[in-house]
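hey so u asked for the seq, here:
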Amino acid sequence: MPVPAALPGPLRDPAPMLQHTLAQWERQGGDLWIFGYGSLIWRPDFDHAERRDARVHGWHRALKMWSRVNRGTPECPGLVFGMLPGGSCRGTAFRVERAHAPQVMTNLWQREMVLGVYDPRWLPCRTPQGTVTALAFTLSPKSPSHTGVLADEDYRRIFAQASGLYGTTRDYAEATHAELLRMGIRDRALARLIALAREPG
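ran it, structure tokens below
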């Protein structure tokens, strides 16, 4: 499958999406919960009052989202994780105190929603202390940022070449894999991709 050089179609404006998501949270009341499943689990970049192991049903973690800023460029897109429909996903639920929530969400938008490609959703997260409703950044299979099915040689090329604002796709994938293992989470699909990246060229 050829790697696209640019994002087709108009980008969504992330600002109205932030305001809409903030309004939804305001209606819920209480503190803010955020579900991390990729880089947020090892580099949240925000203060939180509590961190819990969590599982979301109906969605799964997949390295199938084009990254043209953080882990790649328009000329050499990299990959980042998205949450796609189906299965389940283990990760981390972070609790942010209500007073800090608006600023934390604004900062998250600057990090995760630069191009407005994620679909923010409030999802039930099962934790050992009970179920919480957390903000999660999901990806539509119809999004132009969804890679679809990539061949092994595509992954190898991307792992070898793609680098962006925050570093390489390979470092991003390996850091996520290492943190998941530390948490006792075994992601077989990710482990296979890591093995591909480490194969001699």
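The chain has one domain: 14-198. Residues 14-198 form a domain with the Hypothetical upf0131 protein ytfp fold (CATH 3.10.490.10).
lmk if thats what u needed
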